[in-house]
Design brief:
This protein is an alpha/beta fold and about 260 residues long. The chain has a single domain (about 5-255), classed as TIM Barrel (Alpha-Beta Barrel), CATH 3.20.20.140. About 40% of the residues lie in helices and about 15% in strands. It has nine helices and eight strands. It has helices spanning about 20-30, 40-55, 75-80, 105-125, 135-150, 165-170, 190-195, 225-240, 240-255; strands at about 5-10, 30-35, 55-60, 90-95, 130-135, 155, 175-180, 205. An eight-stranded parallel beta sheet has the order 1-2-3-4-5-6-7-8. The longest helix is centred in the middle third of the chain and has 21 residues, at about 105-125. The protein starts with a strand and ends in a 9-residue tail after the last helix. The relative contact order is 0.15. The structure holds nickel (II) ion. Nickel (II) ion binds near residues 9, 37, 93 and 208.
Length: about 260
């Protein structure tokens, strides 16, 4: 069974030299569908273009908190237009990043962008793909507030790095926890606890490539071909077979990204 890749950035310039050979090879190797996630306006447009080029690739459109300079009065309208495309299946990645951006005014803008893109996702009935770094509490508070306003709001906390308790609060609200290469790192104690304590029905597989390559490729360019290493680690933590991890996370991904036509290849 193919692995559902829920978070990749094949638009990244690190793939400029070999994208057109690498992507078909990864797909043929058993990774499909692939959600290519926009982070800037350029990345969003490139994600949509990739989704139009490859049947197996879908796009998420959105502005990452650290690209706040891309976000202006016309942005929501542009994203709304792009989301009419059948291959656009989510709003993301959106959220808060207080690690790279410590200016109070920038953080205020990030919260505003996050709230507005959540409202757009609710309006379009699309899931959100959430980035959160050094901003666990504010991220949770804004999602909680969003969920109270829009009961259908749903999504994934990508590259999850919070506590077990908070993960359970997200799951209670219908959110999924995205698990990538970090789970294979030696110092990933909390994430290992999260994976152990959560039901497999709450987890999604992702790479965040070209970043976050799993062990033994840590520090190298990542790509979706390394997803089996992540599935293997989750299987080991949960004491289940790799197949069980692949089948269940695939079903979870189709549940969340329900604009992607279901298939059981
Ligand atoms: Ni990402």
């Amino acid at each position: 069974m193919n692995i559902f890749e829920t978070h990749a950035h094949f638009d990244d310039e690190q793939f400029d030299n070999d994208r057109s050979t690498l992507l078909p090879r990864i797909i043929a190797g058993g990774v499909s569908p692939i959600i290519n996630v926009g982070a800037s306006m350029r990345g969003t447009l490139d994600s949509v273009a990739l989704s139009e080029k490859y049947d197996e690739v879908y796009a998420a459109v959105g502005i990452h908190p650290s690209n706040y300079e891309d976000y202006n009065e016309g942005t929501i309208e542009k994203l709304r237009e792009l989301a009419k495309n059948n291959k656009v299946v989510a709003i993301g990645e959106i959220g808060l990043d207080y690690y790279w951006d410590k200016e109070p005014l920038v953080q205020e803008k990030q919260r505003e962008m996050f709230r507005e893109q959540i409202a757009l996702a609710a309006e379009l009935n699309l899931p959100i793909i959430v980035h959160s770094r050094d901003a666990a509490k504010d991220t949770f508070d804004i999602i909680k507030e969003g969920k109270e306003k829009y009961s259908s709001l749903r999504g994934v906390i990508h590259c999850y790095s919070g506590s077990v308790e908070m993960a359970l609060e997200y799951v209670k609200r219908g959110f999924f926890i995205g698990v990538g290469g970090v789970v294979t790192f030696k110092n990933a104690k909390t994430l290992v606890e999260v994976v152990k304590d959560l039901s497999i029905g709450a987890l999604l597989l992702e790479t965040d490539c070209p970043y976050m390559a799993p062990t033994p490729h840590r520090g190298e360019r990542n790509d979706s071909g390394y997803l089996p290493l992540i599935a293997e680690k989750i299987a080991e933590i949960k004491g289940v077979s790799i197949d069980e991890v692949i089948v269940n996370t695939r079903r979870n991904a189709f549940d969340l990204f329900n604009k992607v036509p279901y298939n059981n290849d």
